[in-house]
Amino acid sequence: MTTAWIPDRSDRSPLMTLDAFTLDAKTAPEARVLDRLIAEAAIPEAVRKAASQRAAGYVRRIRDGSKPGMMEQFLAEYGLSTREGVALMCLAEAMLRVPDAMTIDALIEDKIAPSDWSRHMGHAASPLVNASTWALMLTGRVLDDDAPGMAGVLRGAVRRLGEPVIRTAVSRAMKEMGRQFVLGQTIGKALERAEGMEAKGYTYSYDMLGEAAMTDLDARRYAQSYADAIEVIAGACTKGSVEANPGISIKLSALHPRYEVAKEERVMAELVPVVRDLARAAKRAGMGLNIDAEEQARLVLSLKVIEAVLSDPELAGWDGFGVVVQAYGKRASLVIDWLYGLATRLDRRIMVRLVKGAYWDTEMKLAQVEGLDDFPLFTSKTATDVSYIANAKRLLGYADRIYPQFATHNAHTVAAILEMVGNESFEFQRLHGMGERLHDIVLKDTRGRCRIYAPVGAHRDLLAYLVRRLLENGANSSFVHQIVDEAVKPEEIAADPFDALPTATAPSGLVAPQAIFGGGRINSQGFDLTDEDTLARIEAARAGALPDACPLTRWRRRWSGRAPPACGSTARMTGRRPGGRWRPMAGGPQRPRGAS
């Protein structure tokens, strides 16, 4: 391993501003972004070849070693390439939004009945997966039975009586699976359960389960949950450094009910103090605190919050402030450059966790619905893998100010990083319940660091997290799915994504935002209302039109003999003017307030 070919980053300006995060950068042509990333990374072919060989070796050792985990077995049996797998993913995802039991029953019947569950019976090594298959097979037969006559009527009655039971069984099956991927229902239980893996050399980053806050009460509850967790985790921070101690991950959207660009002023005034207090508590405990990534629409807003918090003088000398960067975003390299510049300007050392991303399907659909010029994310797994490796190289070049954290379950990605790294301090990360065998091998071989991202929370919060994990790893092209499929050769799994890039195509069915209607009909061009330049242009156009805009409302003078205010004037908008008060009339004359 060598760093001789890693370029010097000293020529990069540490004063990069948020002006670089334009709409053009967000929706830049994919080929242009990839060409730039590949050119800047300049990874030699010999290094790439060595990475593929090392990764193929990992695959063989994983297959020859212990049995795969339940997630790998489940995805091998019910991946997104099967009709049944798609049905389960749709069912699990839709149950998050179903308002009542009757709709759940109809949803279960729609998704489960048409599928052929019997062909999966007994294929999996996991008893839990086989038991789930048996239950789904029986459920499907009951729901699909529409035989005529008295027998059909009786079976229909059984079906109606059975739907609540089926509903409960499906929900419980989801919860049972969720238990495999959540460390504990409380932070105390999670710390106890973590002791076994810590004895093997792992450390943890705890994530308190929960989605975006919808009310101020939600936000306060999440903030208290984070604060309580930091207090408890502090007792386990005995290793003397942030890198060796456990840490915590927090979501900005969980800490404010209106975490959106339209409410930026309010967010900066109300959210920044909350995050700052949590960061101060983490510093006192000697632990790390990572800001989880949000959707692309909130990226610039998140960076503004991060800058405001990290600028706090009380955080000086603390190396535990961390930020998550999503490699599937076209602006990932800009985020890393900006974070390096911020750390340089503030004379800090921060952590950056590089992930591939968890909201791909949502982001792509939003880009189509909103009529953007292009997608904000890469359109293929191959392109995302290339972006990840190129940005990993970028982080290693910034090791003087950034402690790199590489979160991945992909053997080739792990191997590529190990081939690129030199003497830089860094760590790998994985999700609790996934990628155990790969990281056990790497931890033993390298004697390096590996951190486990461990969700903590009650079972009612499991489903949203579980669905994201299943969608991320359910495609038949994912490493987690392929690792247990003996038909896929190790060399194929470990193939260099840089070589595959020229032939990579967008996933089936994915069309550009302009072409979603087909047949030559062009989608209307939308406005990205999270982009500052777009908002400025809209405001300029609106301001110019105000003098000519007037509501279809008659106005009445209260007592002054002066003329009514002009349309668009401040007096009309505020309802006040010197010498009188103006009120809209609805249908006819009204008596002014206070008039006798």
What is the terminal-to-terminal distance? 91 Å
CATH topology heading of the largest domain:
TIM Barrel
- Quickly name the level 1 CATH class of the largest domain: Alpha Beta
Q: Mind telling me the C-alpha Rg?
A: 28 Å
Output the number of helix runs: 23
What structural category characterises the helix and strand content?
alpha/beta
Query: If classified by CATH, what would the architecture of the largest domain be?
Result: Alpha-Beta Barrel
Number of domains: 3
Biggest β-sheet: strands ordered side by side in the sheet? 1-2-3-4-5-6-7-8
* Mean pLDDT, all residues: 79
Helix-residue proportion = 40-55%
List segments where confidence is low: pLDDT < 50 over at least 5 consecutive residues. 1-14, 125-143, 147-158, 554-561, 568-596
Shape: globular
Largest sheet: 8 strands, parallel, barrel
Relative strand content? 5-15%
Number of strands: 12
Question: Care to give the gist of this entry?
Answer:
With 596 residues, the protein is α/β, with parallel strands linked by helices. It folds into three domains: 18-43 and 182-473, Alpha-Beta Barrel (TIM Barrel), CATH 3.20.20.220; 78-177; 532-585, no CATH class.
